[in-house]
Amino acid sequence: MSIDHSRLRLLQTFVGFAALFALFAWGASFSGTGAEAGRSVLAEGLRIPTEQAGLRMALVFALALVNATLVVRIASRNLMYRERNYMPSILYLIISLGWAWPADNSAPLTLFVSFLCIYAFDTVIFSYHKEGMYGYFFNASVAIGTAVLLFPPAIFFVPAILIGLIALGRDSREWVVSLVGLLLPVFLCSYVFWALGNDSSMVVRQGAALLVEPASPDGFPPMEPLALVAPVLFGIALLLSLGTWIKRRKGMRQRTQKAYLVMLWATVAAVAMVAVLPCRSSAMMPLLAMPLAIFTPAWFGTHSGLFPNLVYALMIVSILFHNLLPLL
User: Fold this and answer.
1) Cystine design at 6: which of 46, 52, 109, 300 (Cβ 3.0–4.6 Å)?
2) Percent of the chain that is helix, strand, coil (3-state, to 5)
3) If you write DSSP's letter for every residue of 6-17 in order, what string do you get?
4) pLDDT one-digit tens code per residue, 109-144
5) How far apart are CA 212 and CA 219, in angstroms?
């Protein structure tokens, strides 16, 4: 009996998730791929000592599993696929940690920042058709504001959140609440720095400096032919999913349409972040993984057979070969 890899059950998906994580972690322990980039002064307090490798690895696995579960929840709660699909969890893992494992000390931070962004977008979408629930927008904005403080490249998601407010048709009061939530973490952090005798503008100035700081030479692994296979396959799958959404959108519920639209803009923001920022590095991949893992499976959810299975399998195999072949 043939296996439809994009429609695995929950237990099968978890086993595959754990096996892939173990392979990626094993490869990272030898190669030390990736680079730390965009880490703010505030984030230095979250650094896990190098000698506590076991604790760090357990935390990375827990955060990756939680984030993967949340991206599945966003898709399922908003009926973004025609049937139950756990594929986003695997895609989140292979994009965030498979393409290039972040440097040892930055993986927990960037996965936590990714969690804040996932929570923010989930909250904004969930607020659709809920009038006067200003807490949704405030909490989502505070999460994004905190993410930017910890990892300044996350600022690229701010326009996506604001576009989400436009798409959801929110009124001026909800915009004010959202803007207050975005700025509140910066004001609080600046106040604390000022109270400690530092320049209150230090937080903003350092964040801006990190964004324009040139990437280190090892910011991304070299783009050898094998390394290009995975992004090409993801690009193809993303375009096919975009076409599927355009084709299906007239028959979708309004909330599903809005969810797709918000995640599309989040995908645009994430790709722009990785492509444009001078400080780009593999540490940004967990942020790129969040919208891609939700938006890309749309095509797989409406097609079955040899070709979708082959594309999905090649996406995973290319990532594995990219990570493990140099070690062998």
Assistant:
1) 300
2) 75, 0, 25
3) GG--HHHHHHHH
4) 889 999 999 999 998 888 776 666 677 788 888 999
5) 14
